[in-house]
UniProtKB/TrEMBL annotation:
It comes from Spirosoma arboris. Gene3D superfamilies: 2.60.40.2550. The lineage of its organism: Bacteria, Pseudomonadati, Bacteroidota, Cytophagia, Cytophagales. Residues 149-225 form the Secretion system C-terminal sorting domain. This is T9SS type A sorting domain-containing protein. It holds the Pfam family Por_Secre_tail.
Length: 226
């Protein structure tokens, strides 16, 4: 800040306690500053006390900065020694503490009176690799759709075993060689193997295709009726 000495005396000269001889004195530290004015044979002295600190306030961010599957969220905390601070994070939050669940750089601006200070912290990590591994494992372990028929050739009852992951219903269609559906049976979703009997007593002898459909999966078996 600047302290300025003034007088109504003619042709004044000034001398500050710092040794400066100008009317205006720039001050950067707290303390008492005196100035002596000389005008001819006359002198006068006055003093002014400066308080506070000339150092710019700072803000700091504390907290762990690595996310993981075991720690999917963390807290960043802003702090300062400046009086009556307010905070504003880059996310828009206005609290000193910020909860973080995704990687990225987070900045905070502290305001204290007319003073401002900014700090930033980068958060890394996450649980992406864990989710990828879980998805890959699920794909590998998924049970494929399959069917088995017996006896084959058949005369009478056809035994059908259907194996699926149980995610969706299974539709069974028996087609003749012309592509005409002779029999249609629906099975409820069930993980593992289900058995169903299909009566073929009234079906003419010949070659047929039994098709199982579950979602986007298909399986088929060649059936011979005697």
């Amino acid at each position: 800040l600047t302290l300025t000495a003034s007088t109504t005396a003619p042709s004044p000269t000034y001398k500050w306690s710092t040794g400066a001889t100008t009317a205006a004195l720039t001050v950067t530290t707290a303390g008492t500053y005196s100035v002596t004015m000389t005008s001819g044979t006359c002198k006068a002295t006055t003093a002014k006390t400066v308080t506070g600190s000339g150092a710019a306030p700072t803000v700091a961010i504390s907290g762990t900065t690595v996310l993981s599957c075991s720690q999917p969220s963390l807290t960043l905390t802003a702090s300062t020694t400046a009086p009556s601070p307010t905070y504003k994070w880059s996310t828009g939050a206005t609290t000193a503490a910020l909860s973080v669940t995704t990687a990225g750089t987070y900045s905070v601006t502290m305001t204290s009176g007319t003073c401002k200070a900014t700090a930033a912290k980068t958060v890394t990590g996450g649980c992406i690799s864990g989710r990828i591994a879980a998805t890959a494992s699920a794909e590998i372990e998924r049970m494929p759709l399959s069917i088995r028929v017996y006896p084959n050739p058949v005369h009478g009852q056809l035994q059908v075993e259907v194996t699926s992951d149980g995610a969706e219903p299974v539709n069974l269609h028996l087609y003749d060689m012309k592509g005409i559906v002779l029999i249609h049976t629906d099975l409820a979703p069930r993980e593992g193997t289900q058995q169903v009997n299909i009566p073929l007593n009234q079906s003419p002898s010949g070659h047929y295709i039994l098709v199982a459909v579950s979602g986007k999966e298909k399986a088929n078996a060649h059936v011979i009726i005697e």
